[in-house]
Specification:
By secondary structure, this protein is of the alpha/beta class. Helix 2 runs antiparallel to helix 9. The two termini are about 35 Å apart. It is about 40% helix and about 15% strand. The strands form 3 sheets. Strands 5-12-11-6-10-7-9-8 form an 8-stranded mixed sheet, with helices on both faces. Strands 2-3-1-4 form a 4-stranded antiparallel sheet. It has 3 domains: about 5-35 and about 160-190, no CATH class; about 40-150, 2-Layer Sandwich (Alpha-Beta Plaits); about 205-440, Rossmann fold (3-Layer(aba) Sandwich), CATH 3.40.50.300.
Length: about 525
């Protein structure tokens, strides 16, 4: 992590860092000032050979090396300490002390330490234990060794538990803990805000966020017709708005939807994107190119049959299934008879070319990027690739690996975060209005009779039936119509066919050749 990023994280989470620092300082102050002062006094006792036993004991050094390790345990035994207490003067006997002892195996010097809340009591207890240890030893003439107190214990001048080092150590630890707490809080915020994390760590554009819904396997009809999940419907409407800003107006647009791994919701996002685009009177064809595990027909509620795997493009378009939305058709995957990448490379370019000639928008459900060969091939044929990322198991390294694979396709890439946990403010609506619900919708009023019914323009450009079997004169139901403005672009002056108008009167038509941001 860079120093600048660290400073930004600490500034943004200064309250968390200060709370951690104050907590450490309070804990250090409590550890320094709450316990009573303790004084430590020590005395040194040396184990030496007895002068009168040198002639009788041949190996006195070996004897001392055997006896000296046993002396600390003998000095700190309960019996020895209790009898040594009797030799402590009465004013300090009742105060008490804790006694410990160690021995240096190289010099055979025993260190006896006594700790007490009174400095004089500590020194008296250390000397009393040393004298008692010397008293219980055998006579030097018989044992061959003797104990000599080198330096008697004296009352210490300062306590053994100083307060200032503890407080300074707690403050230093508090600074370190505060920095780590700020970094941890920044990481939590980035995990909650996946958009920020994707932008900062990967640099990809987040096109939209889809909230987590309680119902699994939600179909577009449940979302856009029955309005069972209004928050999710609003999210797809917002995603559609972001797409329409970038897609060419009035021209064909090819959109591929994929993910890094299976189970991230790419098929659900594909179906709902296709329905949301078709809800704006845009002719959309949803194509199932996930030939290994086709599921688009199930989400759309259409039967499984011939489709992408058909040998002829006309057959694939003829087998397109109709949906309750008259502007949306579905081409299923079909039954594979060879490797899926061979089918995609042979059939999909002709199918996309045919759809571009008909000025239709295609939403292609692709296999996952990792471990599949045909997804990168599809990416080279489309205008935009949408990578669906499950926010619950977001892995930046995995997403970066997927984007590196798409770099070879030389196409535009955008990210859609799926199953995002929204906070309460966002769930209830930012402005307090709440999301659209069917129960809140105004009552529908029957339209007044018109002289000529509104019809949808034919896809083939002629008045006859279109290749998928739907006639041009199908009237669209009001339940599926979205009242949004349609931008009409005027062409050069051209007289209206079949009318007696004057020359030079412009006819408003859409310009199918307009280019947009996503077009390469």
């Amino acid at each position: 992590m860079e120093i600048r990023q660290l400073i930004r994280d600490v500034r943004r989470n200064l309250a968390v860092a200060l709370a951690a620092f104050v907590l450490c300082v309070v804990a250090g102050g409590a550890a320094a000032f709450l316990p009573a002062k303790q004084y430590s006094a020590s005395t040194l006792v040396a184990v030496q050979a007895a002068p009168g036993a040198i002639g009788t004991i041949s190996n006195v050094g070996e004897l001392i090396s055997i006896v000296s390790p046993q002396l600390p345990a003998e000095a700190t035994s309960a019996t020895n300490v209790a009898r040594a207490r009797a030799n402590v003067p009465e004013p300090y006997r009742s105060i008490g002390a804790s006694v410990s002892a160690t021995v240096d195996p190289g010099t055979f010097i025993v260190t006896i330490t006594a700790k007490s809340s009174n400095k004089v009591a500590a020194a008296d207890f250390a000397n009393a234990v040393a004298n008692r240890l010397n008293f219980v030893q055998p006579r030097p003439a018989e044992s061959g060794y003797e104990l000599t107190q080198l330096s008697p214990a004296t009352p210490p001048s300062s306590p053994s538990n100083p307060r200032l080092p503890i407080v300074l150590g707690a403050a230093a630890f508090g600074v370190i803990l505060g920095i780590f707490a700020a970094m941890w809080a920044a990481g939590i915020r980035r995990r909650l805000s996946r958009v920020t994390e994707v932008k900062e760590r990967i640099g990809a554009t987040v096109l939209g966020e889809i909230p987590r819904v309680a119902v699994t396997g939600l179909r577009p009809t449940d979302l856009f017709v029955k309005h069972s999940e209004p928050m999710a419907m609003e999210a797809f409407q917002e995603l559609r708005s972001n797409l329409l800003i970038s897609l060419p107006a009035g021209a064909s647009a090819m959109i591929a939807v994929t993910s890094c791994d299976p189970g991230e919701g790419k098929t659900s996002v594909s179906t709902n994107i296709a329905w949301a685009l078709a809800a704006q009177d845009r002719h959309v064809t949803a194509i199932d190119c996930d030939l290994r595990k086709p599921a688009l027909h199930t989400q759309m509620g259409v039967p499984f049959g011939p489709g992408v795997t058909s040998r002829r493009t006309e057959d694939a378009l003829a087998h397109a299934s109709r949906t309750p939305n008259p502007y949306l058709d579905v081409i299923p995957a079909g039954i594979i008879d060879r490797h899926p990448s061979d089918i995609v490379s042979a059939h999909l370019p002709l199918l996309i070319e045919q759809l571009r000639e008909r000025h239709e928008t295609a939403v292609i459900d692709c296999p996952p990027l990792i471990g599949v060969a045909e997804t990168v091939l599809i990416a080279t044929m489309v205008d935009l690739v949408i990578v669906v990322v499950d926010a619950r198991r977001f892995n930046p390294e995995r997403l970066q690996q997927c984007l590196l694979r798409l770099d070879t396709a030389n196409t535009n890439v955008a990210i859609v975060l799926n199953r995002v946990r929204f906070n309460r403010k966002r769930r209830d609506g930012t402005y307090g209005y709440g999301h659209f619900r069917r129960a809140d919708a105004p009552p529908q009023v029957a339209p007044a009779p018109m002289a000529t019914p509104s019809v949808t323009p034919p896809r083939s450009g002629r008045g006859g039936p279109v290749p998928n079997g739907r006639r041009a004169g199908v009237e669209r139901s009001d339940a599926l119509r979205v009242s949004e403005p349609t931008v009409l672009r005027s062409s050069p002056a051209e007289p209206t066919p079949g009318s007696s108008g004057t020359p030079g009167t412009p006819r408003p038509i859409e310009n199918p050749g307009q280019t947009g941001y996503w077009q390469r």
